[in-house]
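The protein record filed here.
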Amino acid sequence: MNGSGVHSILYFSVDTPTKEAPELRRAVDEIVQIEPAWRVRVHSVGPQFVICGEDELELQAIREEIQKTQSVVFGELKIGYRETIRKSAEAEGKYIRQTGGMGNYGHCWLRIEPSEPGIDYAFVNGSQVGAIPERYIGPIERGVQNEMGLGILAGYPMFNLKVTLLDGSYHEVDSNEMAFQFAGSIAFKEAARKAYPVLLEPVMAVEVIVSEEFMGTIIDGINARRGRIEEIENEDESGGLKTIKATVPLPELLRSSTYGRPEWTMRFAGYQERPHFGRLGGDDAPTPAIKPRGPRPRTDSAAA
């Protein structure tokens, strides 16, 4: 399947019995072999399958072809938004439970911050040697990654993050991997709420070929869709045809087909912050990062 380098900016969820899942994958494979230029892929999310790609018409065509031979239920075509943060923040995560017999104790401090350009995710163990046994570092990171997949604002995956494990503590008897995974999850969620989370929308690089007399109408239409004109070039020597290059948010392109598909092309250009989307903390001003207190020394009796 042509899945290498495919951006999941559009997707269908597909409900199909588990025993029929291989048939669904084969059907998509066969379609892509016929149309090798199509950039789509299939992956599983719990009991559902997701068919994702970058082109609305390609995904619609695949749905129609599959429905000719298989009785599967497709969800609506959806946009693959993402989430990220704009500020650095720190938070503590504690998971302490005592239900009789052996208890559960996990404790960590995390700092999250925007990652360097080009890095989707990084996890760094910056804790002092011995603060948390090595066997619990992995579970903390799993807790972080679980929350990143769920998002903090609207349920979309988070990326462009650096997470640093700062400190923590453990109990010789009550600590276990599950407790530290929960602790990592709690700390990440709390830090993300304070780190100015934002919703990101996919943006497409669009090229429209239009005659000069209609150029003003096209430019007005792009501006009305929150687009930005990047360049205008002559398409022919006479200058009668123009190529308008712009970047336009994908949600705005899906809501309208004013120009007709044969007249314009588009490709994925990246993500940008979606404006006028409610942020945690109320106003547009970012919620300030709060430097937490370090963990206090504890004795064996401190484990709940």
In short: The longest strand covers residues 197-211. The chain is about 25% helix and 35% strand. The domain at 200-273 is CATH 3.30.70.240 (Alpha-Beta Plaits). The mean pLDDT is 82.
